[in-house]
């Protein structure tokens, strides 16, 4: 059994997950870093030898999740914090100009992957009890609709509601449970969404100042280090350059015949 606290991170190969892995490993935590890209996990191990347990895991594959959790070494459990960060957006088309296979992948990753990971890791979090945390990454897209957001936004709305219900179902365990809902943040989000257009990805951040992965890592660090009796139910975080979108009002001429 680990003498150091342990954080279990999904989607640790880039963005928020990688930054959070580095933040916690550099502060004495042990990190279970999961993701599909083995080479990136190995790079984290090389950076923090002894502090990172790499686990190749696919959120769309329940057997992969169960196997990764079952194979955890004793010194990487119990789990003080589960950071359900892994997720993705695919496609930019508005309904009906969409690809239902992409919708299915988003649902399998953002919804079912979250459910299966939570169920698999929850017993290890309950073993810590008071002071432990589960942090689920949602998005402002779960509250603010935009053209092309469709199923991605719906999956993030699910994260918010699932988090609230999980908190209710685990009442009395001492586990803190939070929905972390970022706005405009720098990551590989657009590159993934567009099928690998990294030029479009960089253009998203060229003339503004987005949240950085390190900002999210700092937020996660703050959440897990609050007093054990304090629970932040949800936290919506945006960069200063972004404000909540007002509803769009169309003029009569904007409507089709």
Structural class: alpha/beta
What is the straight-line distance between the termini? Answer: 68 Å
Profile the largest sheet: 7 strands, parallel
Instruction: Tell me the fraction of residues in β-strands, as a range.
Output: 5-15%
The gross shape turns out to be globular
Pfam family, one: adh_short
InterPro entries: NAD(P)-bd_dom_sf, Sc_DH/Rdtase_CS, SDR_fam
Protein name: NAD(P)-dependent oxidoreductase
Keywords: Oxidoreductase
What does this structure look like?
There is one protein chain. With 257 residues, the chain is of the alpha/beta class. The protein has one domain (6-241): Rossmann fold (3-Layer(aba) Sandwich), CATH 3.40.50. The chain contains eight helices and seven strands. α3 runs parallel beside α4 and α4 runs parallel beside α5 (150-169). The longest helix is centred in the middle third of the chain and has 27 residues, at 100-126. A seven-stranded parallel β-sheet has the order 3-2-1-4-5-6-7, with helices on both faces. The model has no long low-confidence stretch (mean pLDDT 93). One of its GO terms (molecular function) is oxidoreductase activity, acting on the CH-OH group of donors, NAD or NADP as acceptor. Belongs to the short-chain dehydrogenases/reductases (SDR) family. It comes from Pelagibacterium lentulum. This is NAD(P)-dependent oxidoreductase. InterPro entries: NAD(P)-bd_dom_sf, Sc_DH/Rdtase_CS, SDR_fam.
């Amino acid at each position: 059994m680990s003498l150091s606290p342990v954080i279990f991170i999904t989607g640790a190969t880039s963005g928020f997950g990688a930054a959070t892995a580095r933040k916690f490993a550099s502060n004495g935590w042990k990190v279970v870093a999961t993701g599909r890209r083995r080479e990136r996990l190995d790079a984290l191990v090389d950076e923090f030898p002894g502090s990172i347990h790499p686990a190749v895991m696919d959120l769309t594959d329940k057997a992969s999740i169960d196997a990764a959790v079952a194979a955890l070494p004793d010194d990487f459990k119990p789990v003080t914090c589960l950071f359900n960060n892994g997720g993705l957006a695919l496609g930019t088309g508005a309904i009906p100009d969409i690809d239902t296979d992409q919708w299915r992948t988003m649902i399998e990753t953002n919804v079912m992957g979250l459910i299966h990971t939570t169920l698999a890791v929850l017993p290890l979090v309950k073993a810590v009890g008071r002071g432990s945390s589960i942090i689920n990454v949602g998005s402002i897209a779960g509250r603010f609709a935009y053209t092309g957001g469709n199923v991605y936004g719906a999956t993030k709305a699910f994260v918010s509601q699932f988090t609230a219900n999980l908190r209710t179902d685990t009442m009395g365990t001492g586990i803190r449970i939070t929905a972390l809902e970022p706005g405009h943040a720098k990551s590989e989000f657009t590159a993934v969404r567009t099928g690998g257009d990294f030029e479009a990805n960089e253009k998203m951040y060229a003339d503004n100042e987005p949240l950085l992965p390190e900002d999210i890592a700092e937020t996660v660090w703050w959440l897990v280090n609050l007093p054990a009796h304090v629970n932040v139910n949800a936290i919506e975080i945006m960069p200063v350059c972004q404000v909540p979108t007002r509803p769009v009002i169309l003029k009569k001429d904007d409507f089709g015949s």
